[in-house]
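Re-running the complex after MR caught last week's input typo. The corrected sequence lines follow. Everything else is unchanged.
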Amino acid sequence: MINNDNDTTDLHLGMAEEVSRFTEAWRIFNKNRLALWGLVIFTVFFLVAVSGLVLTVGDNPVLDPAKVRLSEKLLPPVSPVDTEMVKPEDRPFAGIYLLGTDDLGRDVLARMMQGAWVSLTVGFVAVGIAVLIGIIMGGLAGYYGNVRINFMQLLAMAAFFTSMVFLISGQKEMAINFMTASALFVSFSIVYYFVSVKGSGDPGAMRFFFFDTVSVDSLIMRFVDIMLCFPSFFLILTVVAILPASIYNIMIVIGLTGWMGTTRFVRAEFLSLREQDFVSAARAMGIRDMSIIFRHMIPNAIAPVLVSATIGIAGAILTEAGLSFLGFGVPPPHATWGNILSDGKRFLFDAPWLTYIPGLSILVVVLAFNLFGEGLRDALNPRLRKR
Amino acid sequence: MFSFTVRSFFQKLVTLFFISIISFLVVYLAPGEPSQIDPLNPKFTVEDLQRFRQEFNLDKPLHEQYYLYYKNLFTGQLKSWKDNQPVLGKIYERFKNSLWLFIVGTLITWCLSFPVGIHAAINRGSVFDRTSTFFAYVLISIPSFFFAYILIIFVVKTFNISVIGMQTFGMSGADSIYQIMDRVWHLVIPSILGALGGIALLSRYVRAQMLEVIHQDYIRTARAKGLSEDQVYYKHGFRNALLPFVTMFGLILPGLIGGSVIIESIFAWPGMGRMGYEAILARDYPIILTINFMAAVLVLIGTFISDLLYMVVDPRIRL
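Corrected-run output:
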């Protein structure tokens, strides 16, 4: 009756087909029409931005965003170039202003293409910085959260930061004093370590300076709480306005004020992963902590980070546009969608395309990032999948 | 419960101390000094520079500046660098204007988000749900300044009323009824714009909460009892979904300052956000610092209130 040969194949019949994590996520993502559109627009935007970079750099670019033609100012979209007034080498690509010109006769299409690349890099670099800090801080808080910092270490850290502050503010003497103090505390710690831990001697009264204070987890999370208290846009505006105007400062400042969410996600993921069997197994095998964190835990914790990064890029693009609008954005040689709009608002009635083209572009791209991010969240979140 | 309150309070105090340090450092560590703002001005001699630095304690070491700044702030003696007026007085003047925007904006947010969110959750997957979801994303994604211009053009062209500023120029002699109507018109557009992001986020949140509750067992029990749908949703569902929102009353406080910079600049609304923007342009450090500090303090107060409210509303916390 029972055919032993078929037994092994029959076993598979009753089971569900083996599906990889990616296929499963893609299946759910595919169902979400809006998210799919988000992905499509995201891809198109990426291609436009890259081609924008390629077409607008160099001495004689195909699309010149900086070429001023005063005779051709404020032309509406799809207007041909005036061949009598403009020299052949100054003419736009194919002799037509596809998106019109601005108040200096610059080609809006070229400026939008250049701005796309700038927006993309601002978004990616800013979020990259934020995610990097977030993973490091969240990883520390999640993995080493229970480690307690002793009093001397806390003193050394406080002295070090104070010395840095004085160094930046230009008060050399105070900086040196605090740096010496910090070094003293550190060497004191090292001595203590060798006497009491390695040498198993009696530290005696020294123990008084090494009582445990806060844990790593509460130190980092309190810092996150403090950072979350500040109004982010106003803080960014303040710092960007005070620092010299540059595109890198904007990326860094947006990145430095946006890492708190990632830290919380990564910490939460790490706290639950830390207790799981595969991490215990890895630890039992004697794998180093760094290797456990980077090889085993981060790949499992990356999903919420990806989602918040996608939505974070949307936020960073909006923030950059807002800064440009207020006049503190990327400085003039670079065109960004924010400053095209901000320049164009003076001609709102004469040249509405100068407002609507960048405005709608920002809207569509940011919307695409948001929809894509939300779709990703649904696809990657196993808790929602069961419903 | 008492110990929780006390502990939470002291935690907030420690946080406040670090906030005061960070908000001070953010401004004072910046390269350059306000005294160097116009180095090419021939009228600004070296002696003037010295006097300026002495007047505003800029020649003192950093920790003394920190001490003097907060001492002056808490005793109310802090002066703006631009016009030598007391900072707290200036902020209070602007605060009154911002408060109106804030109240109207919050009312609009809360009155719109709840019906939209609940309706979307009850009719999950319907046309209404999908459109409201899509529009929520649009509202989050649209640059507020761009939308502001569209709205201004629309309102000015269709209704022929001016919306910039707090009142129409030359209205001061008119009847009070006209003045009030004029003020209301000027108030509505910036409030709506300020509320848009909040409406989108809150309505999504209401929807998610409501969906969470609708799938609970007690809702099925209520249905099985034969209650009407309205009773099931509003008496058994909504009340339970409300829990997180009670605590959000505390968290709306910070909205008083944050996020209003762009809207207030566009509408020339003399509120706190615009004041902060003007202060940044003029490098008026005391005002920038005080606004940052006050915003952070408002967040702290907000979280403290929401902690307390949560304790009152949700008995599980007290265990």
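None of the earlier attempt is carried over here. DSSP finds 13 helices and no strands in chain B. Chain B touches chain A through 50 residues (CB under 8 Å).
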